Amino acid sequence: MADRQPTAVIGAGAWGTALAWSVAQSGKPVTIWALEREVVESINTTHENKSFLPGMTLPDNLLATDDMGEAVKGSRVVIFVAPSQFMRQTLEKLKNVIPQNAVVVSATKGIENNTLALPAEMIADTMPAGIADRACFLSGPTFAKELIKKHPTAGIVASKDPSAAKLAQETLSAPWLRLYVSEDVVGAELGGALKNVIAIAAGISDGLGLGHNSRVALITRGLTEMTRLGMALGAQERTFSGLSGIGDLVLTCSGDLSRNRAVGLRIGKGEGLKEILDSMSAVAEGVATSVSVYNLARREGVDMPISNEVYKTLYEGKSPKQAVCDLMSRELKPEF
After folding, report:
1. Is 318 an annotated catalytic residue?
2. In this predicted structure, what is the pLDDT of residue 227?
3. How do the residues of the chain divide into helix, strand and coil, expressed in percent and rounded to 5?
4. Domains within the chain, CATH numbers bracketed
5. Which of 195, 269, 312, 318 is catalytic?
6. How many CB atoms sit inside 10 A of residue 267's CB?
7. What is the model's pLDDT at position 86?
């Protein structure tokens, strides 16, 4: 049986709220930390996160607070769901209040811009060694709005510590959420981060009206890029054929609920990036991650043409049509 101690969730966006809701269905107390006071008040007074997950009634055993110490008090499992570009500063607050026996489960998918650090590296940089060594990483094809409809969903928990992975697996698993364990932290994290960049490319393709052939080509060659960078950074190749690799990639590139695909779709239809981001309340991680991936690929000497074209389209003013032309006119070569 899963540990019955209180569970904390750090971050009250759609995915953090959905995970808090899912764990709370077991009947155990769950406290979610939100940066925004209006989100705390909405959850505690109306049992609804009107800002990020409207229309979903939250259970009585799920409470919200903007006091991080209060959120994690007595918690054995702390689920961390802050956006990657705010992860380090949020971890700096968490390290002063987290119980020393806690297991952190990161559900953040991204790469920090200025350091090119993955979530595991940010946790290692900020948290006590004991907590960092047993940290776990949740990844896989998981839309929040489908999870809360109890549609069967699968994902993975990756950790270097088998006992911590088992605790996280048992705490988060539910009749509608089946989680597998993995020891490949780097592969799980890279899959979760890189698929967002490829999803922007897929959205751009759809916005240009290029059809299913083009989308599938981007997904397949995007997976090759993900695997190539993963291998360079020490990931296991097989991880990219699993839930946190091809599984998450297909979902994010093709699902209408994908924020990253939606950004790309609007870019392909001619909107500017600033206009798109100004209109969004939630974070599309791939926009910032595209910068990190561009620089990480250059640092490692890894060829990532699709990811490079996404970066140039978002940040250098390159036209989507020219990006497609340049991808298709590259030197001919073997597939593998």
Report:
1. no
2. 98
3. 55, 10, 35
4. 7-183 (3.40.50.720), 193-328 (1.10.1040.10)
5. 195
6. 22
7. 95
Q: Which residues of the chain have pLDDT under 50?
A: 1-3
This prediction's pTM: 0.95
Question: Using CA atoms, how far apart are residues 291 and 259, in angstroms rounded to an integer?
Answer: 17
pLDDT value at residue 5: 84
249: which 2 tokens?
């990639």
Handedness of CA 70, 170, 53, 96 (dihedral sign): positive
Copy the structure tokens of residue 84.
């990657």
